[in-house]
Specification:
Layout lengths: L1 E5 L3 H13 L3 E5 L3 H10 L1 E5 L3 E3 L2 E3 L10 E4 L6 H7 L9 E4 L6 H5 L8 E6 L2 E6 L2 E6 L3 E5 L4 H13 L4 E3 L3 H22 L3 H5 L4 H18 L6 H14 L6 H8 L10 H10 L5 H17 L3
Parallel strand pairs: 1-2, 1-6, 2-5, 3-10, 6-7, 7-8, 11-12
Antiparallel strand pairs: 3-4, 8-11, 9-10
Helix pairs in contact: 6-8, 6-9, 6-10, 6-12, 11-12
Bound molecules: NADPH dihydro-nicotinamide-adenine-dinucleotide phosphate and ketopantoate.
Length: 307
């Protein structure tokens, strides 16, 4: 099986590393960061943290790849998903499956512009990783992955889930992945934006007295909007999951922190807290806490001239 990872930053390399290392599939990492590509091709991909290893793996720019894909795992940032799908369009035919593991909501709308619904697998992951430098990633949290083919092509969706499970990525086929996506959006909506604004690790934010009210107010809005959207969300179950994740990822600087604080990059806020604000408008539900946190992150992006 030929697997491309479209967007090979921290998480793309985490997924690509596991598939290349633990299965018979061939993995090609696709990215635009030339120094990263060159280092991987010359010295191998270095993995530190919960897994210590170095493997040989091919990295290319999307335009340099030519063979049709059996599977494309998209792992860009949300804002780059549309352009990445355009840039890998020559690698897709009717037999290609696409798996999207990005944080946030609404990516299926973008994917539908590029491939048929029965080629789209939506997923969600609580693995945690960061970039050490070109050619080197750090896996800071061992997690799990949920996958579902959203066009009803269960057979292909289960093959994708099986491949990732075989790769040791702790993956299950989930017949209600939208529930898992909303649950994950709440994890990111409570810990990514807050840690990025407060410049702290997840565990540090959750050790403050103030965190409880902030998390509660944000989750109330997510649950109300999600339920209006038909996703049957239980607040206690969501809070239990958030607290469990805050414990397992306590030493991690979330991806939004890495973007805004470490790399001065624009964030995925509009696909996380901002997405619930937009959905709230459709259902006439006010979401002042998520709106405020979205605007605060945008204000910080502006002040820092994030790119
Ligand atoms: N990190 C985590 O722990 C988790 C992240 N996610 C989600 O996974 C998706 C991918 O995120 P993640 O892997 O963290 O993102 P990264 O920032 O590590 O990588 C994303 C892209 O950013 C570019 N990039 C990264 N660093 C540099 C650099 N120094 N110079 C130039 N380009 C660089 C690369 O693409 P390009 O060259 O095209 O810009 C890369 O493909 C997001 O949706 C995120 O929310 C989900 C779960 C956990
Ligand atoms: C919170 C965490 C680590 C959960 O996997 C994550 O999704 C991120 O850093 O964006």
């Amino acid at each position: 099986m030929l697997v491309y990872i479209a967007g090979s930053g921290a998480m793309g390399c985490t997924v690509g590393y596991h598939i290349q290392k633990n299965t018979d599939s061939e993995v090609i990492l696709l990215d635009y960061w030339q120094e990263h590509i060159d280092n991987i091709n010359k010295n191998g991909l270095e993995v530190t943290g919960k897994v210590e290893d170095k493997i040989e793996i091919v990295a290319l720019k999307p335009t340099q790849a030519s063979r049709k894909a059996d599977l494309i795992v998209v792992m860009t940032k949300s804002m780059k998903l549309d352009s990445m799908m355009q840039d890998v369009s020559h690698l897709i035919d009717e037999n290609t499956q696409v798996l999207c593991l990005l944080n946030g909501m609404g990516h299926e709308r973008i994917l539908k512009e590029h491939v048929n619904l029965d080629q789209i697998n939506m997923g969600v992951t609580v693995w945690a990783a960061g970039i050490n430098g070109p050619g080197s990633i750090n896996i800071s949290g061992i997690g799990s992955i949920d996958v579902q083919n959203i066009g009803g092509n269960e057979e292909e969706g289960k093959k994708v889930a099986d491949l990732l499970e075989q790769a040791n990525l702790h993956t299950k086929y989930d017949s209600n992945v939208m529930h898992a996506i909303w649950r994950k959006v709440m994890v990111n909506g409570t810990m990514n934006s807050t840690s990025a604004l407060l410049k702290c690790k997840i565990g540090e934010f959750f050790s403050t007295n103030a965190h409880k009210k902030i998390v509660d107010d944000l989750v109330n809005e997510f649950v109300e909007v999600g339920n209006a959207d038909g996703i049957k969300l239980d607040k206690k179950e969501m809070l239990d999951y958030i607290y469990q994740t805050s414990e397992s990822a306590k030493d991690h600087y979330p991806s939004m922190y890495q973007d805004l604080v470490k790399n001065n990059k624009k964030t995925e806020i509009d696909f996380i807290n901002g997405a619930v604000v937009e959905k709230g408008k459709k259902h006439n539900i006010e979401t002042p806490y998520n709106d405020l946190i979205t605007q605060l992150v945008h204000a910080k992006e502006e002040l820092q001239k994030a790119e």
